[in-house]
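The instructor's notes for this session suggest beginning with a concrete chain rather than abstract definitions. Hand out the sequence below and ask the class to guess, before any prediction is shown, which regions might be ordered.
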Amino acid sequence: MRVLAVYIGRAQMRQDPGQNHLTAMARNAVEGPVAVGRLGLAGDEQADLSVHGGVSQAVYAYPSEHLPFWQTVRAQAGVAAWGEAIAPGLLGENLLLEGLRETELWIGDRLWIGRGDGTAPGCVLAVSEPRMPCNKFNAAMGFVHAAKLMQQSGFSGAYLAVIAPGQVQAGDAITLHPGPREVNLRDLFKARARRD
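After discussion, reveal the predicted structure:
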């Protein structure tokens, strides 16, 4: 399990057919270590703090294993060429992870990120909740059914709270320290999606 990439973004106005909105969905890759504070990564912003950000949504992590799915559905929707890779940070993620899917994460699990031996983490993050997609996700993906497909697939990614500030960078190892294991991340996402 490891961090494949680290992304940050700034809130900016985006013009889409029929609407203009402030968004920080477009994120850019960062080379080298990035400071992680209680409210997220240094240099990262959220456009609407009433629904994103804060202590429980400080960092958004997404499994790299889901990228082929989004690559295929974007091609099927006609907004990308077949075989066109997903642009870095397109899903709004701060951390692109390898080896940790929603079914393997539980609310309260802790991710020690840093040295491979797990004894001196660069930071410690806790799984706090799934990401619930909105219309801005549809706009970023380029087609109107993207949020619905996230709900149907269960490919939500995870919001993380910062337990121990520090730093993170691409290539960092992740050591999973299980929490109480009472609520699975994917199960919580599916329950919330049914409610919406």
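Then share the key points. The first strand starts at residue 2 and ends at 8. The chain has one domain: 2-195.
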